[in-house]
Write a structure and sequence with these properties.
Low-confidence stretches: 1-11
Shape: elongated
Number of helices: 8
Helix content: over 70%
Number of strands: 0
Strand content: under 5%
Length: 233
């Protein structure tokens, strides 16, 4: 009795927290900057801008943390179901599972003789771990934690969001919008470079996408705020 192979997902708790932190910071920067620039386009009243910005920071951080918790909890439940399934299969048909392991190594390019020898060594050490790594790309001892992802996402969103909030509140009114634009795009360039490094991608393309997309988004939200603010007046 065997189970189908699935694409290896290469899970790692440290990378999981780092991924959540980078995404959280990026979302905090973009969403908060969009909110404060939209309000700044409608009014120059510092109190209104600060209130909208603080609401965006708190609401966004909580929402991001909840989203990460739910997402990673679902992932963890799936990983645990794989562990339970493989455990049951080994108890029911250990010889069939050994043959399945050999076939898996042969599909990876090993000869039948080498695949059998590797399967024997891995089975002697830890048969369950060998199957989990080969078929699912997971480690029973390294299942991701939804709490760590949620906390990392909350803190990174909060810290990222403070950059545009400070940029729009601290400068004089005449420099408020351009300073926020510059600070936001610089912060996006940094998060883009970090995310590219994590994913082993081209940092130039990742940074360019974020800067262009961020600039367009900020321009649109500021324009909408300015349009509706003027119409209201």
């Amino acid at each position: 009795m065997t189970t189908p192979d699935v694409t290896s997902i290469g899970l790692n708790e440290k990378l999981n927290k780092l991924r959540a932190a980078v995404l959280g910071a990026n979302d905090g920067i973009v969403s908060t900057a969009a909110v404060v620039l939209g309000v700044a386009g409608a009014t120059s009243h510092v109190g209104a801008i600060a209130t909208a910005g603080i609401a965006a920071v708190v609401g966004g951080a909580v929402s991001m943390a909840l989203g990460e918790y739910v997402s990673v909890s679902s992932q963890r439940d799936t990983e645990r179901s794989y562990v339970a399934k493989e455990t049951a299969l080994h108890e029911q048909d250990p010889e069939g599972e050994f043959a399945h392991l050999v076939r898996g190594y042969m599909r990876d390019g090993l000869s039948a003789e080498t695949a059998t020898r590797v399967a024997q060594e891995r089975t002697a050490a830890d048969p369950l771990k060998a199957h989990l790594e080969l078929h699912y790309g997971i480690d029973e001892e390294d299942i991701v934690s939804p709490w760590s992802a949620a906390i990392a996402s909350f803190l990174s969103f909060f810290l990222g969001a403070m950059l545009p909030l400070a940029a729009v509140l601290l400068p004089p009114e005449s420099a408020r919008v351009p300073v926020t634009f510059v600070v936001t795009l610089l912060a996006l360039a940094i998060t883009g470079a970090i995310s590219a490094k994590i994913g082993d991608a081209d940092p130039k393309r990742a940074v360019a996408r974020l800067i262009i997309g961020g600039a367009l988004g900020l321009a649109v939200t500021y324009g909408v705020g300015n349009l509706f603010g003027t119409a209201a007046l």
